[in-house]
Amino acid sequence: MQYRIDSKSGNKLSVLGFGCMRLPTRLAQVDLEKTEKLFLSAIENGVNYFDTAYIYGNSETILGDILNKNNARGKVFLATKLPYQKCKCYEDFEKLFNTQLKRLKTDYIDYYLIHNLSEVAIWRALCDLGIEKWIAEKKARGQIRQIGFSFHGAQTGFLSLLDAYAWDFCQIQYNYMDENYQAGRAGLKAAHARNLPVIIMEPLLGGKLATGLPAKAVKLFKEADSGAAPAAGARPASWALRWLWNQPEVTVVLSGMNSAEQLSENIKTAETAKPGMLSEKEAAVFAPVVAVFRESYKIPCTGCNYCMPCPRGVNIPGCFASYNVSFSVGYVSGLMQYLTSTGANHPEKGYSGRNCVKCGACEKKCPQHIEIIKNLDIVTKRMEPFWVRAAIFLVSRFMR
């Protein structure tokens, strides 16, 4: 495992961090046995940065239980996040934080973030509630070691936030498809110039850059493989991770690994993760890959599920994913995925985009700022033409 130094604290952080938003599941529930094996294997192989959040389901509790059971708390740096939307008064900071400590079975947090802080106006509103005083008290007691923020917003907002407070670190969405999106490369360099460690989330765009690439893009990677990294030519995920680790401004790259194979392959790639690791030929391949990918990646949904649950039961990420697949892989594959993910064959009612009542609840929570209502209309027009709706109706009647 390679490590990079947190320039603020001096902590030695593994370049590969474990993102705990998308844990492995079995029968729609987190597979605890599999998750424990993955966490322990990651730690044994040098991964020492684990990232979770208050709103990631029961992720905090699961992570805390596993670390406590295996006496592993002291082997890792824990990162979790404050859901500021739930903070209406000063006391709420303390209440939420104590809940997180209890869930994580610890008495301190190494890296604490204000979750999805997108603009200075929000930070100022939190300051009016007294958050600066609260943070100072927590740091003085050693309960918060490093304070930062995660970001999904416009680049101008990110640059303003960097100077709004004496942050210890920050976390941004960044990958070779999002080079100029949200904080982007300019934001990465600006944070680095301020001596801030930068944690990277969505390095694989919710898995799209690992398993969702069009065949033409995968072929481009294989042709560009110079043999410098054995796994790179066969595995698109390796290319995406290496693109990030090639940049000295990147500190930790989070990956939501949910299989032993993914963990093993990422660790193997991380073993050579150094700035300047890409050859000139390898670096040049990303531009044509991006061009190919943009042709099929119509809706920039990462599948984070922040928009869920929909009050009408619409599987929003499922709708968008299948729509994108209909372009990248083929219409039939996309349609089959759409019918499955939306429960179109449910005997009473399905959960397609047609169930949307345009309440707008989802759009307020989307970190990608997707026009969900508008795009659901586009999706249903492509994925539910009249002949598909007729087939769904007949199947539903038969199942009744």
Write structural notes for this entry:
The chain has two domains: 3-294, Alpha-Beta Barrel (TIM Barrel); 316-399, no CATH class. It has 18 helices and twelve strands. The model has no long low-confidence stretch (mean pLDDT 87). Helix content is 46%, strand content 12%. The radius of gyration is 22 Å and the shape is globular. The chain is of the alpha/beta class. The strands form three sheets. Strands 3-6-7-8-9-10-11-12 form an eight-stranded parallel barrel, surrounded by five helices. Helix 9 (215-224) packs antiparallel against helix 13 (286-296). The longest helix has 15 residues, at 90-104.
Write the layout of secondary structure elements.
Elements: E1 3-5, E2 12-14, E3 16-19, E4 25-26, E5 29-30, H1 32-44, E6 49-51, H2 59-69, E7 77-82, H3 90-104, E8 109-114, H4 120-128, H5 131-141, E9 144-151, H6 155-162, E10 169-173, H7 184-193, E11 198-201, H8 208-211, H9 215-224, H10 236-245, E12 252-255, H11 260-270, H12 280-284, H13 286-296, H14 316-328, H15 331-341, H16 361-365, H17 372-383, H18 386-399
Parallel strand pairs: 3-6, 3-12, 6-7, 7-8, 8-9, 9-10, 10-11, 11-12
Antiparallel strand pairs: 1-2, 4-5
